[in-house]
Amino acid sequence: MKSVCVNKILSGYFAARCGRIDNIMNNPLECQRFVLKNLLTSAKHTQYGRQYGFDSVANYEQFAQQTPINDYQSLYPYIEKMIKGEKNVLWRGHIKWFAKSSGTSGRKSKYIPVSHESLWNNNYQSGRDTLSLYIANRPDSKLFMGKTFSLTGALRSSDINDKAICGDISAFLVKGLPSWANFFKTPPYHIALLPDWNEKLEQFAQHMKKQDVRAIAGVPSWILMIVKRIMELEQKNNLCEIWPNLELFMHGGVNFSPYRKQYEHITNKNLCFWQVYNASEGYFATQDRLVADDMLLLVDNGVFFEFIPMDNFSTNEYANAIPLEKVKVGKNYAIVITTNAGLWRYVIGDVVQFTSLNPYRIVIVGRTTHFVNAFGEELIVDNAEKALSIACQKTNAIISEYTMAPVYLSSTQKAAHQWLIEFEQVPQSLAEFTQVLDEELKNQNSDYEAKRTADILLQMPIVQQMPKGTFLKWLASKNRLGGQFKVPRLSNDRLVIEEILSMVDNL
User: Fold this and answer.
1) Residue 152: Cβ within 10 Å count
2) N or C: which end of the chain has fewer CB within 10 A?
3) How is the chain split among helix, strand and coil, in percent rounded to 5?
4) CB 32 within 8 Å of CB 304
5) pLDDT band at residue 484, thresholds of 50, 70 and 90?
6) Against a cut of 0.90, is the pTM above it?
7) Number of alpha carbons in the 13 Å side-chain half-sphere of residue 290
8) Alpha helix (H) ranges present in 241-337?
């Protein structure tokens, strides 16, 4: 009876918040103007604010004229000062928490500042908005009568300053929650933040099999590993035999399409899949209807949005950034964010497309560079090129062409990266080449390193030598011969790699 009352109270609370959601939908441009004004006012006395005259900015046009667009490289000198303990650098006050994300060119990892405002007014606020929208769509929900299962990373002191704490944004979200909120979350704090992934995953599985789980939140690939382990422990073929009240799976971080059928196979048809767009840099959008592929842009949660049309995107074309009011449906844009943690006009690297302007809804269509993010590894071309170069040096090999795509986790195969490589000079040992490639990718990218830990999720890369001329024949088959056409280096799906493998099989 007590849980029924709690569920009724909390469901009513989140349902009452829908008036705020209506404002996001009906007055998005006014919301964005208010957000920008508040951000500038809050940061006008910071080092960055004084440098770019925030106290004199009267409107968006002036802000865009006075403030440069940034990537991580250009903001890092300021972030480094913050990690070392300086106050009032990019954002007001002293920031001690930094979310660790995958690296950009020349860096293994990025360290994204996490302010009190970004935690409460962006991440938690957006989370409440997501729950409000879900309850509005499922008024019969019994979500709060049980637990929400979420997978989190770990925290550690920074190598630069041991008073600065670094880790996954998921870990900060758990650490910052008020004590009452932990009543609805599982596993408990001491398991959620374990640093050793082998120990963590097993303890997750052992603990979770006993819980009344109503919702799951996390990256699909990692969650799938845990729930399969729980089913193995309980000797069940369907997850809902273990958690009969499971009703919601909130997913984000990677493309869900390859995993949908697997989840549908091990759950019942009543499970609702709900997409969110949350990253180390912020929580930007959420699904707002039961059946939808797009997400509502959250325009009133401490983030100001701009967009760069992808048809002329380059570092020399940043001046082409436009505000929300000028976007068009069906056009690809690189997303630019200004946040309440001090990321000023920051190119996050994601490419989005608007499906609706009333309200503003988006889908994520890719990245500004070739990449693979099938399992949260966020591997970029720069990582791959450097690792391949070192592998060639150490094994006396020369590469003429290559492409890579994920092998998705399924009931018959383990997750891995598959590399098709055409060698001009074959390595002395393909096994040694593969080993060096794997180690160097770990050195280049901390997210890849984490996913490869102890072969828990990603297995050793699969490297296949292709006959000479393979990629040229593939380009010819696609009518793409010529200097302007290139073989895609990294793909987040298997379309290209399957076409090439099929062509080789038919030779």
Assistant:
1) 25
2) N
3) 45, 25, 35
4) yes
5) very low
6) no
7) 10
8) 257-266
